[in-house]
Write a structure and sequence with these properties.
The complex is a heterodimer of chains A (311) and B (328).
Chain A: H1 2-29, H2 34-39, H3 45-55, H4 61-73, H5 87-122, H6 127-141, H7 144-158, H8 170-200, H9 203-210, H10 215-243, H11 247-252, H12 258-267, H13 271-299, H14 301-310
Helix pairs in contact in A: 1-13, 5-6, 5-8, 5-10, 5-13, 6-8, 7-8, 8-10, 9-10, 10-13, 12-13, 13-14
Chain B: E1 5-16, E2 23-34, E3 38-42, H1 49-56, E4 64-73, E5 76-77, H2 83-89, E6 94-97, H3 101-104, H4 111-122, H5 127-140, H6 146-149, H7 159-171, E7 177-181, H8 189-206, E8 209-214, H9 217-223, E9 226-231, E10 234-240, H10 241-246, H11 251-258, H12 298-302, E11 308-311, E12 314-316, E13 326-327
Parallel strand pairs in B: 3-8, 3-9, 6-7, 7-8
Antiparallel strand pairs in B: 1-2, 1-4, 4-5, 9-10, 10-12, 11-12, 11-13
Helix pairs in contact in B: 4-5, 4-7, 5-7, 7-8
Classes of the chains: A mainly alpha (311), B alpha/beta (328).
Bound molecules: adenosine-5'-diphosphate, iron/sulfur cluster (SF4) and magnesium ion.
Chain lengths: 311, 328
């Protein structure tokens, strides 16, 4: 088990290293002179030269990267061109809001997704199952911003139950979290339903029935745990995605999270901030994935052995 | 001494839904398991042995139903029982073990949990008492280091050990009847013998009766007191094991014996039965064995033979015995 976790952390570090190269090179990928793009067409040559020098872009690539990494280790992600504040401060200001939204949204997704999934499997091929399929299809095909706008129209404008896009109170959180939750729940629901149907046809379910166990135990103790193995992976990926900032939803609801921060940075060509958010999201993503793998090996005792045999 | 019946199956008929209407997979099956005996059901794969045994405990999947017949367990007709009442019978009065121990245990629950839960379900034991009983059961079925294995997951165990765990689950609540559906088919030959020995000694120790399903006449010879031969969903011959092996009546039984390797006769060439078991949608209107039978007559093509009583303890479904016995 320890070996397994260690392996995952080491490979995680490798990935983060890759992301750091990517975010570093980001500025060099831009066709033309990035400094000119940042400053706009009216910039004087002196301004361009000053910023080039300030950003260290006149030094050799390797030296630049070395400097970049050295700074990162000291917690220096650079300085936002727009606000003049450290990039890390900007990110850490916004991150808690994104976490709030992501966690709450995911909670809604998990509750809806798993309960509907079990329900659909339990009543397979009945009207209940079909309604759940319709729900899943809608959830996948409706764009999330459209659902967001619909919810705002109904619950904020018409019914006035919730405020329209101001502040970060719990009441402000509900609509964006529901939007994220409903969209994310459809995939969890489909996986749970299909997994449940498949697992219920396994030999060990027949064994459980032959023991005279109650249906409740067969469903939750014997079936659900096996179903959750793939579902947990997807939940983890969704959390990682949401933590990276649900850009569109945050924008529609004017939620001050990482998503709006990143979008703002792109709009205002604030390259240090873009680099910083990309790197930060990468780290979050990798961390969540490691946590999911660890959780996975707790749920499924076979995982650990598979890793041992493979290595 | 008159023996008492533990199980009496009468006219059991089981159907599965299909695109072309219901298929009768098990057709008018009769047999009795006497107290303390091992009754074998033998037949090639696809003859309806598993469906028969699953029907007894009503463990068929939802496409399968018992369309007629009775299953008396100690004079109670199980077919009339609802799901809730059946739950009290399963695992407590009648237990079952299955062919493939690799897939029959839940991969994410410990061995201890999987044995313990059947005890918790049927007996008023809790916590430590359950654990003690489980460890005793593990020892009883011959699993070494029972205390450690208690905490292990199935993937750590070999096939033979898993089947021992399945047996521990089955005997945990002292059932009256144990149904074993090809319990050794998926195992190595040496392990097979060990598992059969274990089943036999447990049966005696715990005063159980046993319904042993197999396609292997070697297993029948070693384990069974009496045998039911099934072909294409029907009983074609019922008799005691000695008579079956020495004086088989039905051409199908004769074919089965000729295709079974015999230890004492060395490596003589085996005669396998030509052709295959028909699937339920291909059953002939006459004798269901007619396409494969070396003794087939004209009447066999058109009319299905009834089950004849050849003598007091032997019956046979074949026109060859028309004048030698009474129709049941
Ligand atoms: N769940 C099922 N649905 C439809 N047909 C089935 C099902 N289970 C078994 N059958 C059919 O019933 C027949 C008997 O099967 P089975 O009892 O498993 O045979 P055996 O155990 O003797 O090998 C076969 O023709 C098989 O195709
Ligand atoms: S009834 Fe005819 S075909 Fe059937 S087993 Fe007897 S002899 Fe063979
Ligand atoms: Mg079978």
């Amino acid at each position: 088990m320890k070996q397994f976790i260690l392996n995952r952390i080491l490979s995680g570090i490798l990935v983060i290293f890759g992301v750091s190269i990517f975010s570093f090179l980001l500025i060099h990928f831009i066709p033309g002179d990035p400094v000119r793009i940042m400053l706009g067409i009216n910039a004087t040559p002196e301004q361009v030269e000053r910023l080039t020098h300030h950003l260290g872009l006149d030094k050799p690539l390797l030296v630049q990267y070395g400097q970049y990494i050295a700074n990162l280790f000291q917690g220096d992600f650079g300085t936002s061109l727009k606000t003049g504040r450290p990039v890390l401060t900007e990110i850490l200001d916004r991150f808690p809001e994104t976490v709030k939204l992501a966690v709450f949204g995911l909670l809604i997704a998990v509750v809806i997704g798993i309960s509907l999934g079990i329900l659909a499997a339990r009543f397979k091929d009945t009207i209940i199952d079909k309604l759940c399929t319709v729900f899943a299809t809608l959830g996948v095909s409706i764009p999330s911003f459209w659902l967001a706008i619909l919810l705002v129209m109904v619950f904020s404008v018409k019914l006035a139950w919730f405020p329209i896009a101001n502040g970060t109170n719990f009441r402000d959180l509900i609509l964006p979290a529901c939007t994220l939750g409903v969209v994310a729940s459809t995939m969890i629901m489909r996986l749970t339903r299909n997994g449940m149907v498949e697992v219920l046809s396994n030999d060990y379910i027949r064994t459980a029935r032959a023991k005279g166990l109650e249906d409740r135990l067969i469903l939750f103790r014997h079936a659900l745990r096996n179903v959750l193995i793939p579902v947990v992976t997807v939940i983890g990926l969704q959390l990682a995605g949401l933590l990276g900032g649900a850009v569109i939803i945050e924008q529609v609801f004017n939620w001050p999270g990482l998503g709006t921060l990143a979008l703002g940075a792109i709009m205002s060509r604030d390259f240090p901030l873009i680099q910083g958010t990309v790197l930060f999201m990468g780290v979050v993503y990798v961390t969540i994935n490691i946590l999911v793998d660890i959780l996975y090996s707790v749920i499924d005792p076979r995982v650990e052995m598979g890793v041992k045999e493979a290595s | 001494m008159k023996m008492s019946k533990v199980l009496e199956v009468k006219g059991l008929t089981t159907q599965f839904e299909s695109k072309n209407g219901p298929l009768t997979v098990v057709d008018q099956v009769d047999f009795i398991v006497e107290k303390g005996e091992v009754l074998g059901i033998v037949g090639e794969s696809g003859c309806g042995k598993s469906v028969t045994s699953l029907s007894i405990l009503q463990l068929l999947d939802k496409h399968g139903t018992i369309s007629s017949g009775e299953v008396f367990y100690q004079n109670i007709n199980l077919v009339e029982k609802n799901e809730k009442e059946m739950k009290k019978i399963r695992g407590k009065e009648i237990s079952m073990i299955f062919q493939d121990p690799m897939t029959s245990l839940n991969p994410v629950l410990t061995i201890g949990k999987q044995i313990g839960e059947v005890i918790e379900q049927h007996e008023k034991l809790k916590g430590q008492e359950v654990k003690q009983k489980v460890v005793k059961l593990l020892q009883l079925v011959g699993i070494p280091r029972a205390d450690e294995i208690y905490h292990e997951y199935p993937h750590r165990l070999s096939g033979g050990m898993k089947q021992r765990v399945m047996i521990a689950i089955a005997i945990a609540c002292n059932p009256t009847l144990l149904i074993a559906d090809e319990p050794t088919t998926a195992l190595d030959v040496t392990i097979q013998a060990q598992i059969l020995d274990l089943l036999r000694s447990l049966k005696d120790e715990m005063d159980m009766s046993m319904l042993l399903i197999t396609h292997d006449l070697g297993v029948v010879a070693e384990m069974c007191d009496r045998v039911v031969v099934m072909y294409a969903g029907q009983v074609v011959e019922t008799t005691d094991t000695r008579t079956l092996l020495r004086h088989p009546k039905h051409p199908y039984t004769i074919g089965l014996i000729q295709s079974t390797p015999h230890q004492s006769k060395g490596e003589k060439r085996l005669k396998s039965i030509l052709g295959q078991v028909p699937t339920p949608d291909q059953f002939s209107h006459g004798c269901r064995f007619v396409e494969r039978c070396p003794k087939a007559m004209e009447i066999c093509q058109s009319t299905a033979p009834p089950l004849y009583d050849v003598d007091s303890h032997t019956s046979c479904r074949c026109w060859l015995y028309e004048n030698k016995g009474d129709v049941i």
